[in-house]
Design goal:
The complex is a heterodimer. The two termini of chain A are 28 Å apart. In chain A, the strands form three sheets. Chain A has a six-stranded mixed beta sheet, with helices on both faces. Chain A has a four-stranded antiparallel beta sheet with strand order 2-1-4-5. Chain A has a two-stranded antiparallel ribbon with strand order 7-8. The radius of gyration of chain A is 18 Å and the shape is globular. Chain A contains eight helices and twelve strands. Helices cover 36% and strands 28% of the residues of chain A. Chain B is of the alpha/beta class. The relative contact order of chain B is 0.09. In chain B, strands 1, 4, 5, 7, 9, 11, 13, 15, 17 and 19 form a ten-stranded mixed beta sheet that branches. A ten-stranded mixed beta sheet of chain B has the order 3-2-6-8-10-12-14-16-18-20, covered by helices on one side. The radius of gyration of chain B is 21 Å and the shape is globular. The longest helix of chain B has 18 residues, at 2-19. Classes of the chains: A alpha/beta, B alpha/beta. Chain A binds chain B through residues 48-52, 71-73, 75-77, 81-82, 84, 87-88, 90-93, 97-99, 101-103, 105-106, 109, 141-142, 158, 162, and chain B through 385-388, 390-399, 401-402, 405-406, 408-413, 445-447.
C-alpha cells in the first residue's frame, strides 16, 4: 500500500530525513519509534503534504500512485489521513461544518454520493459513541478550547468519519491519560480492516500495548536503523535507543 | 507659499458646492442650512493634505458630472427591491434616489408603538421633535460632507420610540440608487430618537439598482434618552463605481446603550464616520465593524468615541478583509475628557490582508485627560494562518474552499455581534457570494 524509497526531506534547508525506506502492506500496523529529533514528525508531515517540507530525493508510492506530486487535499481524498500531534485551533470554523465539507469532498473524489445533513449527522452520532466524544464539542469551532485529550480524541473521531486507507498517528498518545489512551486506541483498533493500514508514530512503547503493531521500526538521524516485530518495542522500552545509535554510528551511517 | 497654493486650489473645488439650492423645510431648518453652507466655504473641499482625509482622496468627485439625483426617471417595482428587504412584513422605509417611496414602504400604523416616516412628512406636520434634534447632533463645523448634507438634504427617515416602548420588530431604511445617468448625488438624512427606556433596532441599507457611478452622502443622527437601547446596523453594498460618504452620530444619555454595526462591502470609495458622545454617566457603546474590500476599492472608517462623562464604557471591534489592490483605512479616536473618571474604553482593529498589493492604514488615537481610566487598544494586520489552512486541506478540503472558510471565520466574529437574525442571514448569503469570488491566491503559502 505504501512504499517509501530512499526518501530525503528537510525544512529551511536542513536535511532531516536521509534516505528513508519503508514498506507497509494493507491490513498492517507499523510503529515508528525513535528518539527526539530523529525525524518522526517530519515523516508524518511529508506524507501528508505539508508545503514547508522540501523533498530532496526519493519516491513515495501509495496504492500505485506517486504521492509526492499530490496536493494535501488530493492525498486526503485518496485515503491518507494524518492525526496531528498538535491539532490547530481554528476559531470561527464550526467543527461539524468543517467535517461535513471534508467528508463530502472525499466522497465526491471517490465518485460517491454526498451525504445530506441528516444522513451525515446520523453518521457523526455513531462515530462519537465509538470515541466516547462529547457531541457538544462538535457545535464548537474546530479544536477551539478543547483540552489536550479532547483534541487527540477529535483527531481519531475525524479518522473514524473519513475512513482513510492509510492513517498516520503522530504521537497520538502524548498528553493522554490512561483512560483516554484506552478509548482512543480502542477506536483505532475497531477501525482496523484488511484493506487499510496504520502508521503509529510514538515515543513510548505504552501505546503499543493497546494498538499492537505488526512491525516496529526505529527511526534515527533520518533513517530506519532497525526493524523488528512487536517485541522490538519492549526491548526499546527496556534498553533505550543508545545501543542502537551506537551500532548505527559504528556502521558508518550518518 | 504652500499655504496660498492650497487655498487657491481649494476655492474652485468648493465653489460648485456653494451654488446649489438649499434643501426644503421650515424656517428653523433653513437657518441651519444656511449656516451649514457658510461652513462649507470655510472648511473647503477635503484634500489629502488634511489629516482626516490623508489616505482617502475624494478629488475624483470633482471630475464627475455631479448633479442632484432626479427621482422617478425609472419606475421601480416591489419585486426589484425585494432582495434588499430583510423581512417581508417588517417596517421598511424605501428611498429611491433619495426620494421617499410610500408605495414601496411599510410604515407602522397609527396605533403602533413607534413612529416612523419621512422627514418631510414630519416637518410638514408637528415638527417639534424634529426641531429639537435634527441637525443638532452631527457637527458641521469640521466635516465638509456633513455640512453639505445639512445644507442640501431633500428627505430622509425619522424614527422615534416613545418612553419605555420596546419595539421588537426592526425598522429598515432602504436607500437605493437607480439613476442611469452617471454622477447622481443623493444627500440622505436620518434621525432616530429613542426616548427614556425605549428600545429599537434600525437597519440602514445602501445599495444600487444601477451600474452608473453615483454619490451617496448620508448623515444619521441618533439621540438616546436615559436608559434607551438602540441597535443600529448600517449595511453598505453600493456599486463598484459609487462614492459613499456617511456620518453616523449618536448622543447618549445616562445608562443608554448603543450597539452600532457598520458592514461595508461596496462602493469604489466608502468613508464611514461613526461617532458617539456620552453626555451622562453609565452609558455604553459597542462599535462593531466589518469591511471587505476587493479590486481597487477603498473603504475608510473613522470612529470617534467621546467619553465626555465619567463611568461610561465603550467596546470597539473593527475587522477588515482586504484583497486585490484594495485599500483599507481605520482611524479610531477615543477622547476621555478631564472629568471622565472610571472610563472603560477598548478598541480592537484586526485586518486580514489577502494580497501583497492590498494596503491598510490603521491608527488608534487615544486622547486621555482623566487619570482613573482603563483604555486599551490593539491593531493587527495578518495573513491567513498557514497551519490552519494545511489542517483543513489535510482533511480533503480544497485550497480555495479552505481559504474561504478561514476568511469567513475571520468575518464571523463581527457578524455574530449582530443580534438580528434576518441581518445575519442576509450577510451569510452576501458574504458567501463575495468570498467565492475573492482572489485569495496570494493568501497562505501552501501549494
Amino acid at each position: 500500500m505504501l512504499e517509501i524509497h530512499n526518501l530525503s526531506a528537510g525544512v529551511d534547508g536542513k536535511e532531516i530525513l536521509r534516505g528513508l525506506n519503508l514498506s507497509v502492506r494493507a491490513g498492517e500496523v507499523h510503529a515508528i519509534m525513535g528518539p527526539n529529533g530523529s525525524g518522526k514528525s517530519t515523516l508524518a508531515q511529508v506524507l501528508a503534504g505539508r508545503g514547508e517540507y522540501a523533498v530532496t530525493s526519493g519516491t513515495v508510492t501509495f496504492n500505485g500512485v506517486s504521492l509526492l506530486e499530490m496536493k494535501p487535499e488530493e492525498r486526503a481524498r485518496a485515503g491518507v489521513f494524518l492525526a496531528f500531534q498538535y491539532p490547530v485551533e481554528i476559531p470561527g470554523v464550526n467543527s461539524t461544518v468543517f467535517l461535513k465539507a471534508a467528508f463530502n469532498e472525499c466522497r465526491k473524489a471517490r465518485g460517491e454520493q454526498e451525504l445530506d445533513a441528516v444522513e451525515f449527522l446520523a453518521l457523526v452520532k455513531k462515530k462519537t459513541k465509538l470515541l466516547e466524544l462529547d457531541p457538544a464539542l462538535l457545535n464548537r469551532a474546530v479544536n477551539e478550547g478543547f483540552s489536550g485529550g479532547e483534541k487527540k480524541r477529535n483527531e481519531i473521531f475525524q479518522m473514524a468519519v473519513l475512513e482513510p486507507k492509510l492513517a498516520i498517528l503522530d504521537e497520538t498518545d502524548s498528553g493522554l491519560d490512561i483512560d483516554a489512551l484506552r478509548i482512543v486506541s480502542g477506536g483505532v483498533n475497531k477501525l482496523r480492516r484488511p484493506d487499510n493500514a496504520t502508521l503509529v508514530i510514538t515515543h513510548y512503547q505504552r501505546l503499543l500495548n493497546y494498538i499492537v503493531p505488526d512491525r516496529v521500526h526505529v527511526l534515527a538521524q533520518g533513517q530506519i536503523i532497525k526493524s523488528g516485530g512487536k517485541e522490538l518495542a519492549l526491548e526499546l522500552e527496556q534498553r533505550g535507543y543508545d545501543w542502537l545509535l551506537a551500532g548505527a554510528a559504528s556502521n558508518g551511517k550518518p | 507659499m504652500m499655504e496660498t497654493l492650497a487655498q487657491t486650489d481649494r476655492e474652485p473645488a468648493t465653489a460648485p458646492f456653494l451654488e446649489g439650492e438649499l434643501g426644503p423645510g421650515p424656517a428653523w431648518l433653513q437657518s441651519l442650512r444656511e449656516k451649514a453652507r457658510l461652513r462649507l466655504g470655510e472648511i473647503g473641499f477635503p484634500t489629502t493634505d488634511q489629516e482626516e482625509w490623508r489616505f482617502t482622496n475624494v478629488a475624483p468627485l470633482l471630475k464627475w458630472p455631479l448633479h442632484a439625483a432626479e427621482p422617478g426617471a425609472r419606475s421601480i417595482s416591489a419585486a426589484e427591491i425585494k432582495p434588499f428587504r430583510l423581512a417581508d412584513d417588517g417596517y421598511c422605509l424605501v428611498f429611491v434616489d433619495g426620494r421617499f417611496r410610500a408605495d414601496l414602504s411599510n410604515l407602522p400604523g397609527q396605533d403602533a408603538e413607534l413612529q416612523a416616516g419621512s422627514l418631510r412628512a414630519q416637518w410638514d406636520g408637528d415638527g417639534r421633535e424634529l426641531e429639537q434634534h435634527l441637525a443638532r447632533h452631527a457637527a458641521c463645523d469640521a466635516n465638509f460632507f456633513t455640512a453639505l448634507n445639512t445644507a442640501s438634504f431633500e428627505d430622509g427617515a425619522f424614527v422615534s420610540v416613545p418612553a419605555e416602548a420596546v419595539v421588537e420588530q426592526p425598522v429598515q431604511l432602504l436607500y437605493l440608487a437607480a439613476s442611469e445617468r452617471p454622477g447622481a448625488a443623493v444627500h440622505a438624512r436620518n434621525l432616530i430618537v429613542a426616548h427614556s427606556g425605549g428600545s429599537v433596532k434600525v437597519i440602514e441599507t445602501y445599495a444600487s439598482l444601477t451600474e452608473a457611478p453615483h454619490l451617496t452622502n448620508t448623515v444619521t443622527e441618533l439621540a438616546l434618552g436615559p436608559g434607551a437601547r438602540v441597535e443600529h446596523c448600517k449595511l453598505q453594498n453600493e456599486n463598484a463605481g459609487a462614492f459613499h460618504i456617511a456620518a453616523v452620530q449618536a448622543v447618549q444619555s445616562r445608562n443608554s446603550h448603543w450597539l452600532s454595526h457598520s458592514i461595508a462591502t461596496g462602493a469604489r470609495l466608502a468613508r464611514n464616520q461613526i461617532q458617539t458622545r456620552f453626555n451622562a454617566e453609565g452609558a455604553e457603546a459597542i462599535l462593531n465593524g466589518l469591511y471587505l474590500a476587493r479590486g481597487d476599492q477603498l473603504i475608510d472608517h473613522h470612529t470617534v468615541v467621546d467619553h465626555a462623562q465619567p463611568h461610561c464604557e465603550s467596546h470597539e471591534f473593527y475587522y477588515g478583509i482586504l484583497s486585490g489592490r484594495s485599500h483599507g483605512v481605520f482611524n479610531g479616536k477615543i477622547f476621555v475628557r478631564k472629568d471622565a473618571q472610571k472610563t472603560n474604553a477598548k478598541q480592537t482593529n484586526r485586518n486580514l490582508v489577502l494580497s501583497e498589493h492590498a494596503l491598510i492604514n490603521t491608527k488608534p488615537q487615544l486622547e486621555i485627560f482623566a487619570d482613573d481610566v482603563k483604555c486599551t487598544h490593539g491593531a493587527t494586520v495578518g495573513q491567513l494562518n498557514d497551519e490552519a489552512l494545511f489542517y483543513l486541506r489535510s482533511r480533503g478540503i480544497g485550497a480555495d474552499l479552505a481559504r474561504q472558510m478561514l476568511v469567513r471565520a475571520f468575518a464571523n466574529d463581527a457578524v455574530e455581534r449582530i443580534t438580528l437574525p434576518q441581518v445575519r442571514a442576509y450577510l451569510d448569503q452576501l458574504l458567501t457570494g463575495l468570498f467565492e469570488g475573492l482572489d485569495t491566491s496570494l493568501a497562505g503559502h501552501g501549494q
